[in-house]
Amino acid sequence: MVIAVVVWEPAYAMKPVVLDDDATVHTLGLYADVLEDPKGTVTLESILRGDHDARFVPSASDAPNYGFTTSVYWARFQIRNVRDVPMERFLEIAYPILNHAELHVPEPGGGYTVRIGGNSYPFGKRDLQYRNLVFKIDIRPGDQVLYLRIKTQSSMCFPLILQSPTSFSETVLNEYIVFGLYYGILLVMIIYNLFVFLSVRDVNYVYYIVYILGYLLAVLSHNGLAFQYLWPDSLFWARICVPFFILFVTMLAIPQFSRSFLKMSTYAPWIDRVLIGQIAIGVGMMVATFFVRYSIIMPLTSVLAVISITISFIGGIVCLVRGYRAARFYVIAWTVLTIGMALWFCQAVGILPYNFITKYSNQVGSAAEVVLLALALADRINILKKEKEEVQDELIGMQKSYSQSLEKTVQERTSELELKTRELESERNRLKRRNEMMEREVNLARRIQEQLIPSHNPTGYIASLYRPMEQVGGDFFDFIMFDDSDRIGIFLSDVSGHGVPAAFITSMVKTIILEAGPRNENPAALLSYINAILFRQTGGNFITAYYGIYDRGDRTILYANAGHFPPFIIAGGAISTLMGRSSVPLATLHNKYLEDAGKSYVNNVVQLPDAGKVLLYTDGFTEAQPVEAPGRFFEYNGMAEALTTHAHLPSREFLEQVFNRLIEYRGEETFDDDVCLICLDVS
């Protein structure tokens, strides 16, 4: 915050600034005494009483600069009008990003008129619509003492210039001509490189344009023109835009342009990784500008800017040393910019004095740098073009050599290809005949299997659903009817493997069941009988099987299990399994070995709950997986909900709804295994 105060107090013995007809511009720095107020408690009234005279120290600079500080600063200087009439003068504080200025003008009869300004106030309220803060004052004949109180989060720099309106107009005109040339160079480079990008489609031009545009906004913000023309009423943004755009340019635009233009990942990969980290830090710092005090963020921004440019400069040197010729102009451009930035930074933190060189070193260096970078981009295009021409010449030479050898090779290979073509045609016809034969065999197997599997449900309280993975499958089920109508046998098996071999084994199982006779009324005996016949007859395949005899009269089921999944019992909104003693799959071990090991097939009897369901299934149902997310079995991801949700439906509708949920979970209507379901309504 900057506060300027003008006080009529002739008692101070200071060297006065003499106003006459000769000099129209006065730099007031060396005429000023300065007081530092760390706590910000000093008031104008206490100064006028003489309470702080001993604390005022003569300024040793034309433009007092104390760097970043939280202290309040006062300055006093004496103006002497040797003429007999008042003289109109403009008091300019030539540092546009100061926050607040307060001018106390002594009245002829005593007292003071107070005027305030700075970027803490809308731009339109200024005495003069100018980028720097300018107070329009009338200097009466005689001596007057002016007091300047300064409080700001930016660098504590307050160059004071007193000049006539005519001189001020000439200064502004000359200054705007310089600014026009500078910004004209930047805008021309933006437009020129935009057209070049539209022509060559090289992304480096986009990064370069973004860099120039960001730099343009940063400079406009720093010299006050952005506040004057772009956001005159956005006070918060006016205070933080300088570090924001500096971070954008130095921590984002420059690193990304450097990475892409210099091919850092190829020529300097470790620097490339550093620049990526720098970009991440830059994004965080840009966000921080909205929340952290300017006096904290701006010094850190200045340090980071110097570090960023230094790293990019080192990267350019490394790439040049490692043979990347396009880095030549880049290194020269960054050398010029580094010098300009270093001078500006030293001025900003108070190391160097505020003067024309340090004030505009940043702009001069950046203008030269953008021109040199444009030359670097053009040089890069020329280098790439030359390399492309060299590669094309080499390819043409290689093509001629290859064409000569290829022509000879083609002649030699043509006869071989003709012979191979005839052989391949013969082999293709043979495979075609074989495929046709296999297709006929598969169709035959499918028709046989369709005849083996029941074509309809035996009763209204039992329903079945079978979907083979291929045209034929290894799942098999059958219903065995008894003389008494209350009993029915339910057989379900799953042969390891798929296709025709599995279907052939199911036909063997069907044949054995048909001729098993009395064993059909004893589940354990039937499984032992099937095992005895199939042992060593299945070519290494095994069969899991489940056979149960349901007695509807007393709701019991007598069953034996040969390594198959136990059925689900769905009743009362809950799901349980029909557990019982089980043995090994069929066709794996001889019955005699099973007896000796105590693993023979045995019968189990279970009383089933009333108004429930028994669901027999093969592993193709429980182990179905989504096409887009393999590894997630249906048994643990929605099966229970599907079974309980539709448990109130009759068995046939129940199976249809559950199977639809399975297809929805799977994501398509094909499966990785055969799916077989049998539902028994218990009542």
Describe this structure in words.
The chain is an alpha+beta fold and 683 residues long. Helix content is 48%, strand content 20%. It has helices at 44-48, 165-200, 203-222, 225-229, 235-261, 264-267, 269-288, 294-321, 327-348, 356-452, 499-514, 523-534, 591-596, 619-622, 639-645, 651-666; strands spanning 2-7, 17-19, 25-27, 33-37, 57-58, 72-81, 87-93, 101-106, 112-117, 133-139, 142-150, 160-163, 462-467, 475-481, 487-495, 543-551, 556-562, 568-571, 574-577, 582-583, 604-607, 612-617, 675-682. Strands 1, 2, 4, 5, 6 and 11 form a six-stranded mixed beta sheet that branches. Strands 14, 15, 16, 17, 20 and 21 form a six-stranded mixed beta sheet that branches. Strand 8 and strand 9 form a beta hairpin. Helix 2 runs parallel beside helix 10 (356-452), helix 5 packs antiparallel against helix 7 and helix 5 runs parallel beside helix 8. The longest helix has 97 residues, at 356-452. It is elongated. The chain starts with a strand and ends with a strand. 39% of the residues are buried. The model is unreliable at 1-12 (pLDDT under 50).
Short key terms for the protein model shown above:
six-stranded mixed sheet, elongated, 16 helices, 683 residues
Describe the structure in brief.
The protein is of the alpha+beta class.
| Total DSSP helices | 16
Morphology call: elongated
Could you state the oligomeric state of the chains shown?
single chain
Number of strands: 23
- The residue fraction in helices comes out at 40-55%
Report, as a whole number of angstroms, the end-to-end distance: 89 Å
Low-confidence stretches: 1-12
Proportion of strand residues? 15-25%
Radius of gyration: 47 Å
Q: Helix- and strand-based class?
A: alpha+beta
